[in-house]
Amino acid sequence: MASHAVDAAASGESPTLLLIRRSDAALAAALRQRYRVLDSFASGEPLPAFLAAAAAAAAPDPPRAAVIVSSSVVRVDAALLDAFPSLRCVVNTGAGVEHVDLGECARRGVAVANSGAVYSVDVADHAVGLLVAVLRRVSEAERFVRRGLWPVQGDYPLGSKLGGKRVGIIGMGRIGSLIATRLQAFGCVIYYNSRRPKDSVSYKYFPHVLDLATESDVLIVACALNKETRHIVNKDILDALGKDGIIINIGRGAHIDEAELVRALNDGRTAGAGLDVFENEPEVSAELLSMNNVVLTHHMAVFTLESKSDMCDHTIANLEAFFSGKPLLTPVLPK
Amino acid sequence: MPPPALEPAASGDKPLVLLAQPLFPEFAAALKGRYRFVLAADADAAEAAEARVLLVPGLKTVTAEHLDRLPALGLVAATSVGVDHVDLDACRHRGLAVTNAGEAFAADSADYGVGLVLAVMRRVAAADSYVRRGRWATDGDYPLTTKVSGKRVGIVGLGRIGSLVARRLAAFGCAVSYHSRSPKPSAPYRFVATARELAADSDVLVLSCALTEETRRMVNREVLEALGGGGVLVNVGRGGLVDEPELVRCLREGVIAGAGLDVYENEPHVPPELVDMDNVVLSDHRAVLTPESIRGALDMVAGNLDAFFAGRPLLSPVTL
């Protein structure tokens, strides 16, 4: 990207970019090097005021592209697209596009991109980290040692072996396959469910999540969130998984009926859980906070130094492709 | 149960086995009725003179003096993998056989080692603590963590445990190198001649070798400095492999980025400075401990005892 080495905003040649974010100063700085950025965070205004002002100030070069930092609470819908009729490209920094009306974008000729594979490896690594932490009680041991209990109470309850565990992965996309390869190296047996079987993998396919749960010791949620997958892990699934079963969620909180999961953990009908996402973040049910057989992380599976930098590069690569009339690198199409 | 092949049964059918300390309940239950167990400290003169086997549950220290009291001894059987708690020189001089738990604990130790790598680099345990203390809703930014996949991994000791650690981390796309006493030609990883060079070339250094006079405090200031500011140390070997006070200093000073420790120089004592650090993951020497591996260790112990008394080759002899 050497052509934009000088702060492009100063040269007056750079295209206008709408940036909607609540954080990510590094990304904003990198974008300012190349584009004339209308930056929601820098404006200091509440979002509706910012959007109104940005729409008004758009001339003479209204924004043809927008970058949505996924942590932002903004819907890319008819209203937003009406406010910025010049938009032809929306680049999301995250993988999920639940906040984007893909159909509406398609009708208006607005191309949508997401983070593609940028985060996949880190999410897969985190899923494995959560599973080992739950099965082998790594977090519990930590608390035990830090509270000075080791000399006093002697050895803490044993964990459970990974090798030979049947791991059922819900969703066998990029993340699911990366999780599968890693867990196979631990001697786990991999099963999966997805809308259709994948020719590229040789793991046993289950057309129905209920059957997957019945045959598995561990369930890992690694699919996209949509109407069909909301509460895909519900009471029936938890019952089928059984009292020795473990749930790992690195998808979205809404994939799991959280109240039901809490009840099942409380009653001993589910053995443990590793959760990076929750239905009502940043709230986590008080009962979970006091359980020893769960590992809880704060929706951080994507947040590594490396992926931050990769995401920045990837976002710019998509924008550069758009502005030079080329196809987006990681387009998302309506289903 | 076959009668002892080499000696007439001195008292009853069951061979006498002295215990360095009481057996774990699971072991006691499983071995009940097969051997006559007597605590070494309680053995009378006749039993001490007769005993051919000393079984060492856990990590009870066995010295040359202990061994000297047992003139008929032929086998020291450990329930662990590491045998640094046994005076191996004395065993060698006496011509004693020593057995350990063999492969029984290898997979679980390797799994835990990799779990510690993930827990340190991706801050899984620290984040769990953050959430439990209710800080997610109130606090702002949390530090970015460090990607694990694709990092350079250095393994010290490519035995049973080290090779399983290697295989697991290779599945994360990590480049694996190793240091051991001698290269393993069949291992598909790069051999490095010294621990210091290995540390210099690694983002993560995993210790899974035996504790011997040569390896004691092998991870010293020089090695830690070579590992460097972005580097992470994970120890599922023995605490004695690391200069522990130096490690604490290096963590405090940011000489290395973090550590995952299952073992310490003076268990169950954990240096108090570590308890305040959130870039370390601490565990209570549990890497081996799953019910399945304990059963596996039990099978190994029973198998070694049976083999010894039947005059058959031992299952998991330790080279002295």
From TrEMBL, chain A:
Family: Belongs to the D-isomer specific 2-hydroxyacid dehydrogenase family.
GO molecular function: glyoxylate reductase (NADPH) activity; hydroxypyruvate reductase [NAD(P)H] activity; NAD binding
Alphabetized SUPFAM superfamilies for the sequence: Formate/glycerate dehydrogenase catalytic domain-like, NAD(P)-binding Rossmann-fold domains
Protein name (Swiss-Prot/TrEMBL): D-isomer specific 2-hydroxyacid dehydrogenase NAD-binding domain-containing protein
Sequence ranges assigned to domain D-isomer specific 2-hydroxyacid dehydrogenase catalytic in this UniProt record: 64-332
Organism this protein belongs to: Eragrostis curvula (weeping love grass)
This protein's GO CC annotations: cytosol
Keywords noted in UniProt: NAD, NADP, Oxidoreductase
Signal sequence range: none
All residue ranges annotated as the D-isomer specific 2-hydroxyacid dehydrogenase NAD-binding domain in the record: 128-301
Automatic annotation (TrEMBL), chain B:
Keyword Oxidoreductase: yes
Protein's recorded name: D-isomer specific 2-hydroxyacid dehydrogenase NAD-binding domain-containing protein
GO molecular function, one term: glyoxylate reductase (NADPH) activity
Family designation: Belongs to the D-isomer specific 2-hydroxyacid dehydrogenase family.
Source species of the chain: Eragrostis curvula (weeping love grass)
Ranges for domain D-isomer specific 2-hydroxyacid dehydrogenase NAD-binding: 114-287
GO CC annotations on file: cytosol
CDD domains reported in the protein's UniProt record: HPPR
PROSITE patterns registered for this protein in UniProt: D_2_HYDROXYACID_DH_1
Domain D-isomer specific 2-hydroxyacid dehydrogenase catalytic: 35-318
